[in-house]
Every structure is written in C-alpha cells, then in structure tokens.
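Incident review: delayed structure delivery

Summary: a single-chain prediction request sat in the queue longer than the usual turnaround. Root cause was a stuck worker, restarted by the on-call engineer. No data loss occurred. The affected request and its eventual output are reproduced below so the record is complete for anyone auditing the incident later.

Affected input:
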Amino acid sequence: MGKKRVAQRAKPAYSAPKQMMAALEKLRNKPVIITFHSLGDTDAVASALALAAELGPKAVIAPADRTNSESRRLMSWEMKKFISFETARAKFPDAKIILLDANDPSILPQFGGRAAACRPFILIDHHSVSRASVRAKTEWVEPESSSACELVADLIIHPSSEQARWLILGILSDSAHLMRADANTFAALSRLIPLSSQSYEQLLNELRHPNNATCRAAVLEGLRQCTWKLQGERLLASAIVSSHESHVADALISAGADVAVAGTSDKKGARISARVRASLADEMDLPAIMRETGRALGGMGGGHPGAAGASGPRGERLEDAIGLALRLCAKVKV
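Output delivered after worker restart:
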C-alpha cells in the first residue's frame, strides 16, 4: 500500500485584537504618521491609504523612500499627498507612528539608528518577527495572512468604496492574484467587493497590466539561468539574476518547481526571494530557513509560509547563501 495522504491543516480564522482596535480608536483625528518598508509595494501603499482615511485628516502617509512601479501605476493620484518621513517627523514631532507591512530593519531605513522616541507605536504586519525586528507598543502580526491589507480590512468596520478598492488591490497583489489565498482572504474580499465602485473583473484587469519590459526580461533571464535538481519527488530550482528576483521565484514555481530560490546582488548587498508550492507550505518553515539564509548574508530574513526572503550586505556570499537555502529546504521531510 502507498503512503497515506495527510490532510492539510486548516488555517484558523482570525480577527483584529481588541487592544489593536482600542489603540487605533485613541488615534482617531489625532496627528499620526503612517509608514512602511522601502520600495513600498501595492499592499503597503493600499493599506496605508485605507488606514489613513479611517483615522481622519490628521493622519499623514510618509514612505521610507520611493514606492514600486505597480503601486505608482495603480494609485499615483493618491500618492501626491505623501510626504517624506523626515518632513513628517519635523512637522509633527509628537505624532504617533504606525508601521505597516514590515518589521525587518534592513528594509526600514527610516528607523535606522534613531532614538527610541521614533519607534512605532503600532505595528500591523503579516511577516513573522525575529529578535532583530522593529517592534511596537501595540502589535498585530499574522504571518498566515496573505497581506497587510487583509488585516487592515478587518480593522475598518464600515469601509468606503474608495477604501474597499485600495484594500482589494492590495490583497490581490500580495496574494499573487489569490494563488496564496486562504479562507480568511476570501472572507475579506467577499465583504469588500460589494462595497467597491468597480467590479472584481475591473480591479483584476487593473492588476493584470503587463509588467514592464525590464521585469519581463529579468524573468526570462531567470528561466534561462535556472539550475534545478530532483530531491526524491521534489523539484528544487534556483537562479541568480540582475533584478526582480521575486518575480523570477514566482515564475519558477509557475514553471513547475516545488521550491524556488532566486537572488540578486549589487554594491549594497544581496537579496533572495524564496517560494514553495502551496502543498508544501504547511510542512516547511520557509521563514526560518530564510532567517538562517539572511544570517549567511550578514543580514536577516523572514516572511510567510509560502513566500519569504532574505537580505544582507555580504553580496559576495549570494551563491553560497542560495545553496544553503536549497539544502535546508531539501532536508525537510514531507
């Protein structure tokens, strides 16, 4: 007889902690600075916009630096009101800080080397935390969530049509168009879609705008440079590329890999993105594997069960770090 299949563990439903709801209520209509990680993506920008609208006109959004191309394409008009983090701190020195969608200090330059008074008051994130993470007085960290927008949606009781649009875009983007979704994700969307002024099809078409030529070229480069090996019935693939490593890792999974690790390096260091097929995500602690990989780069790592990453200043160690990640993934018995 063959091996008995083990049913995948159902992911538990979750809801916003009461202490988080209470903390946000105290900040309503008061000076607040909302920020997120470097190169803010659609999830980070959309969750910030929705939360700022909920807290009132005194809430300002202050990115760490520039945002990515997809978020600018989808929400360029709204971004005109963003101000730099330095300007926000100078203009509102007593404002509480809310950090969204990140806790890794390597992608939070606005908190680097600052006094404790600049630390976040609230953290809302869907990436696992480690000892090196930026922490806050009140936190809601839910690594099983597909996106920060999914969490923020649970914090807004009566979202407007505009808030619903932002949150849907963020959820769809960070869940890879629902490839990394679970019951909580669909529950959030089922509540938000009827409130949006656009249909689900219209919103999805906005996101499906083709990636720019540079991104598509990087994906093709990754497929051409890919190396792979079979570990039992498991296919592990890796690639070193010049940019867009996260898109390359996604493409390797779509092409048939069970585990994909893609990395890039430059004068600032190295970055690695890792993905695992959904059927393996519950059995393989990918965030822990990326934390160890990040240490090999002189930095840190973390993420979600199905999608995680690592980064650090030791760019010359990129190839060895990718090899380490693959060995750690191969050791997991499923």
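Verification: Residues 126 and 142 are 5 Å apart (CA to CA).
Action items: add queue-age alerting; document worker restart procedure.
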